[in-house]
Amino acid sequence: MDATLSLSKPPSPPTNKTLSLPSAYRSSLFSPKSNNLTISFPAPRRPYSSLFIRAAISRNKKEETVETVKKHLEDCYLLAAINYKGFTVKQFQELRKSLPENTKLLVAKNTLVYKAVENTKWEAIKPCMKGMNAWLFVQTEEIPVALKPYRTFQKEKKLEENDFAGACFEGKFYGPQDFKVLETMPSKAEVYAQILGSLKAPGSALVGTLQAPARELVMVLKAYVKKLEDEQQGGGGQ
């Protein structure tokens, strides 16, 4: 016995399709009064709905990235950009492990980082807003100690082209050619020794300290003030 299958043309927009089967093939679950079996299909989804969802997710991720950058900058002393073009995932993992706990590495689009630093002292980093950058947030005054792990990593992996693109320190921009200044800054211990030595030495030594570059002088004065505050607190607790 031959079965006849006919499909009626649905109206526009399509919502229902009708399948007509002989009564011999009909199940007892359906009403015998009609020879037609009607199956309803849901109307097709609007094509832009999934695009809207993806756009919303993308927007949320961008906002989260901007907030992450702002949060990292709260206790930041130096922000540096590293050209990471050609880095592998494994290299990123190794680099992160080599960094001190108070140094954060973040891969983020230049536009999102600039949105976070705009109209702040960190806006001086603007010349770095090109190319592929990984961002280094140094949250310690020991700048050379924080920068050294990347220099070591760069040398071991032979990544000469993946140099620092620039940095912002105390509202000033430092280009790649200026990093030697940042990498040779005196540590806290060296600053304290310099202060104590100047105070104990003849006046000419103190004058020499005061004639040092403004950057070093500021660090010396900050360290000396902190030393006095610590001594006062220590004396008050006795």
Break the fold down into its secondary structure elements and pairings:
Elements: E1 6-7, E2 16-20, E3 36-40, H1 48-73, E4 78-83, H2 89-98, E5 103-107, H3 110-117, E6 133-138, H4 143-156, E7 164-169, E8 172-174, H5 179-183, H6 188-200, H7 203-210, H8 214-237
Antiparallel strand pairs: 1-2, 2-3, 4-6, 4-7, 5-6, 7-8
Helix pairs in contact: 1-3, 6-7, 6-8
GO cellular component, one term: ribonucleoprotein complex
GO molecular function, one term: rRNA binding
Family: Belongs to the universal ribosomal protein uL10 family.
Q: What is the overall silhouette?
A: globular
CATH architecture of the domain at 59-185: 2-Layer Sandwich
> How confident overall, as mean pLDDT?
77
What radius of gyration results from the CA coordinates? 34 Å
- As for the CATH topology of the domain at 59-185, it is Alpha-Beta Plaits
Helical coverage, percent range? 40-55%
State the fourth-level CATH superfamily of the domain at 59-185: Ribosomal protein L10, N-terminal RNA-binding domain
Note the gap between the termini. Answer: 109 Å
The low-pLDDT segments are: 1-7
Question: What structural class is derived from the secondary structure elements?
Answer: alpha+beta
Strand proportion: 15-25%
What's the β-strand tally? Answer: 8
Order of helices and strands: EEEHEHEHEHEEHHHH
Major β-sheet annotation: 5 strands, antiparallel
Question: According to CATH, what is the class of the domain at 59-185?
Answer: Alpha Beta
Number of helices, where a helix is a run of at least 4 consecutive DSSP H or I residues: 8
